[in-house]
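Researcher: Here's the sequence for the chain we discussed earlier.
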Amino acid sequence: MDKLASSLGRRDEAPNVRLAQTITKNRDKKAIIDLVTNLANKDKEIQSDCIKVLYEVGEREPTLIAPFAEEFGSLLDSKNNRLVWGAMTAIDCIASNSPETVRRMLPKIIDAADRGSVIGRDHAVSILTKLARRKEFADEAISLLVEQLRRSPSNQLPLYAEMAVPIVDEKHKDLFIMTLKLRLGDIQKESKRKRVEKAITKLSRRS
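Model: Thanks. This is the structure I predict for it:
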């Protein structure tokens, strides 16, 4: 805890990133437990530092934080938006390693995405694309992904379309194309509209 940015009086994230690198290198499970425990600390700066270190660890070695998926899921109800999107980032890190656990969280994930920040929604879409790669979860994940495409801010739509293209199968191809075409009129910036049109073209050519 004394290595967290806030404990060192720092306003940048460099100490948290260094700590994550050390924990990952040493596979320090005790340190991870300490961080998870302090997600409930009364000091919001410590909470923020802890979730930052945890998802930085998760980006490097998802298996180290996967056992704490339920704890991350509980943070999605937090009134602290930093914890919400930080937890979403951590869940995104483990979605490929613990798909069954993450799939059970989908209602909370979608709810948090709909009421949260752009970062949270970005990670929710990423989580859905990862679950969609699993045959047993594909139909549910793709259905939720299409709904995100329908309702997402037009500014984010090109990114989400590009993220979706690799996981769209023949069964769902026409639905994705129709959804994206219906949203084209919402996009004001030409460069962003062209990105969506390119995604549509890629899907149309897929056999």
